[in-house]
Amino acid sequence: MKPDYVKPLDRRHGRVELSQGAGGRAMMQLIGEVFARALGNEYLNQGDDGARLPAPGGRIVIATDAHVVSPLFFPGGDIGCLAVHGTLNDVAVMGATPLYLAASFILEEGFPLADLIRIVDSMATAAREAGVPVVTGDTKVVEAGKADGVFITTTGVGSLREDVDLSGAHARPGDGVLLSGPIGDHGMAIMSLREGLAFDAPIVSDTAALHGLVKTLLDAVPTIRCLRDPTRGGLASTLNEISRQSGVGMVIEEAAIPVRPAVAAACELLGLDPLNVACEGRLVVICPPEQEAAALAALSAHPLGREAALVGRVQADPACFVQMRTRFGGRRHVDWLSGEQLPRIC
């Protein structure tokens, strides 16, 4: 029997309805016309409750992340591409090659279908450009006022070679601390939009998939100790995490840390510290001192690492303090955030 005729979704003026999360025909229509249309591939198109996938070689790395950014659309990206990039990067900084993504959507009743389609299309483009398919997913719809539009959770699966061993516990005194580019772009792009700030040079999110940059780096320098992407809490929290894991301290140089002038101006205007502002397309690298030059060269040769810099050094310190040598020659303690400096940024 042919299925009853179902009127196509009103992609321009339609809104998400509770029935589209109830498991019936309305939900299947939403999945087909919005998600499968944009994200479809040989695995997702199996249409089962999970995906049957080829077994990867080497060890398996899994990372999962929830995305609740507000606003949903911002200069340089949106929650869709951010959900892809954020999880791919969590897999990549383990030294793994990302292979597959799973995605879960919590939609709010009344959310515009046009915005949902825009988000899913952005997600599909990011996944396609990264070469990592979304192979399975789930959708739920909650009552109006319960979800602030849309929340997305993504899980990534990657393959890790047996000879790669990266960890925040591997930093050693004398190691160099490298950054792949300027900090604070993502967080300040969102904050500037919220506050209605405009600058001669617009602040654009740095959201990007880093696995290509990581591969370039590891191919050139197989002795890297640790990789991290400085997201929530920014560079300050990332370095404190590594220091605590490894039982070491760090000294970073204020003059060496790249910050775009517009980001620095926005931070000064709003009373924020760039060290605490999130990035979504930057890499923190800890490597042995004899490999610093090779690591910088490898980063700088990649489009996402052209502004890479050596910004500090690991030192012995049982207190595990992170310090910054200021432009005036003094030192200040770089501590963890005690609360949330910028809410809902990723």
Model description:
- Helix content is 29%, strand content 22%.
- With 346 residues, the protein is of the alpha+beta class.
- The chain folds into two domains: 143 residues, PurM-like, N-terminal domain (60s Ribosomal Protein L30, Chain: A, 2-Layer Sandwich), CATH 3.30.1330.10; 158 residues, Phosphoribosyl-aminoimidazole Synthetase, Chain A, domain 2 (Alpha-Beta Complex).
- It has a seven-stranded mixed beta sheet with strand order 8-10-7-11-9-12-13. The chain has a four-stranded mixed beta sheet with strand order 1-6-4-5. A two-stranded antiparallel sheet has the order 2-3.
- Strand 12 and strand 13 form a beta hairpin.
- Helix 1 packs parallel to helix 3, helix 2 packs parallel to helix 3 and helix 5 packs antiparallel against helix 8.
- The relative contact order is 0.16.
Q: What is the assembly state of the chains in this entry?
A: single chain
Summed up, the helix count is: 8
| Major β-sheet profile | 7 strands, mixed
The CATH architecture of the largest domain: Alpha-Beta Complex
Q: Mind telling me the CATH class of the largest domain? A: Alpha Beta
The count of β-strands is: 13
Looking at the structure, the CATH topology of the largest domain is Phosphoribosyl-aminoimidazole Synthetase, Chain A, domain 2
Order of helices and strands: HEEEHEHEEEHHEHEHEHEEE
> What percent of residues are in strands?
15-25%
Kindly report the spatial arrangement of strands forming the biggest sheet: 8-10-7-11-9-12-13
Low-confidence region ranges = none
Distance separating the two termini: 46 Å
Q: How many structural units, i.e. domains?
A: 2
Q: Could you estimate the helical fraction of the residues in percent? A: 25-40%
Structural class: alpha+beta
**CATH-assigned homologous superfamily of the largest domain:** PurM-like C-terminal domain
* Shape field: globular
Rg, Cα atoms, Å: 21 Å
